[in-house]
Amino acid sequence: MKTRDAVLLYQETQTDTATKTLDIDLADPISAFWIEVWCTNGATSNKGNYISDIVTKIEVVDGSDVLASLNMFQLEALHFYKTGKMPGIFPSEWGGGVQRHGAYLLFGHYLWDPALCLVPTKYKSPQIKVTFNKAAIRAAGATGFADANNILLTIVAKVMEEGASPQGLLMQKQLESFTSTTSGDKRIELPTDYPYSMLLCRFYVQTSDINEIITDLKLTCDTDKYIPFNRKVRDLDSEALGFFGHGKVKHDIFCSHQDAVRGIFNKEASVTPYFAVGSTAAIIGVNYAWSNEIKLDMYTHDGVAQTTDQKVTLMEIGHSPHATLPVLFGVYGNPDDYFPAPKYGKVELVLTQAVAATCQIVLEQLRS
């Protein structure tokens, strides 16, 4: 196979609430886009605010035909579940620190999948769009992202010049985003145009496990004529850990004794903290780490709790990055195993709710 990297953008400055639209004017098949965003923190700090928060939508479109539509949290989680590795994310809360997050938008089962890729010449006017909102969590300034047009966007197309045998592509789209309630079922009707390869669910609120937010997931076809699964989220999450394993992230935080720190991993998180150069505290330990929240014990040598924010670096290990849950249909990488949605008149996902939280449903489909 003959491949090349086509750099479509390199650290191009974006405004704080911009949508960057870029024509995909390549002729050769594209295995993936590498999308990377940098942004500088304010002078004081930027607590609990990620690059993932401010990249609100990533799309690949051909006019009104949407081939991909995700936010950055979803893209990073899919990178992990499709590659087995955490994406290139470097979250930081330090004043003046530079955060950078990068991940693959893959059109196949893996990078350089010869059968599943984006063939730009099959479409009239394909484009990639990236939308930003720097103030999604907190207004720009000293304690947010810096107050300037300092978002830097890089997009690289991973191109297959020779050796590709295109048969289609995998489309990844957010179908639903809602706030769950504390009881009752939420029903979401899924499309039946193409087979399903993977379902990605995100159930996020700090201090709640994903299985505490949504307790049960059920996929039903033609009013329960066929039920592919009806499972406890707790058990699906255990299967995901056994199949995909743990991820690991270096995470720079800025906190004092027992501050609530926003973590990357929702389940079974384990952190190793150490002080950065210039910190005045001397003794550090982990009070707890769970449900996307971390608290550290921080003391001076005299045993006095450190109430002044300190620079700390964590090595954070866990699973369910960004509070996500993958559900595979058959053997991933074998399209013959995928769920044949076009055979059914109606397919619904039923979620049993228990805690108010942000819930997002992403479906990956095989489009031939």
Keywords:
23 strands, Jelly Rolls, 2 domains, 4 helices, mainly beta, 368 residues, globular, five-stranded antiparallel sheet, Adenovirus Type 2 Hexon, domain 4
What can you see in these coordinates?
The chain is mainly β. It folds into two domains: 2-167, Viral coat protein p3 (Adenovirus Type 2 Hexon, domain 4, Distorted Sandwich); 169-368, Jelly Rolls (Sandwich), CATH 2.60.120.20. Helices cover 9% and strands 51% of the residues. It is built from four helices and 23 strands. It has helices at 51-54, 72-83, 210-213, 233-244, and strands spanning 2-14, 19-23, 30-40, 55-62, 65-70, 88-90, 98-106, 126-132, 151-162, 169-179, 185-190, 196-204, 214-221, 226-232, 247-255, 261-262, 265-275, 283-290, 293-299, 310-321, 324-328, 347-353, 358-367. The strands form five sheets. The protein has an eight-stranded mixed beta sheet. A five-stranded antiparallel beta sheet has the order 1-9-3-7-6. β13 and β14 form a beta hairpin. The longest helix is centred in the first third of the chain and has 12 residues, at 72-83. The two termini are 22 Å apart. The mean pLDDT is 96.
Note the topology.
Blueprint: E1 2-14, E2 19-23, E3 30-40, H1 51-54, E4 55-62, E5 65-70, H2 72-83, E6 88-90, E7 98-106, E8 126-132, E9 151-162, E10 169-179, E11 185-190, E12 196-204, H3 210-213, E13 214-221, E14 226-232, H4 233-244, E15 247-255, E16 261-262, E17 265-275, E18 283-290, E19 293-299, E20 310-321, E21 324-328, E22 347-353, E23 358-367
Parallel strand pairs: 5-10
Antiparallel strand pairs: 1-9, 2-8, 3-7, 3-9, 4-5, 4-8, 6-7, 10-23, 11-22, 12-21, 12-23, 13-14, 13-22, 15-20, 16-19, 17-20, 18-19
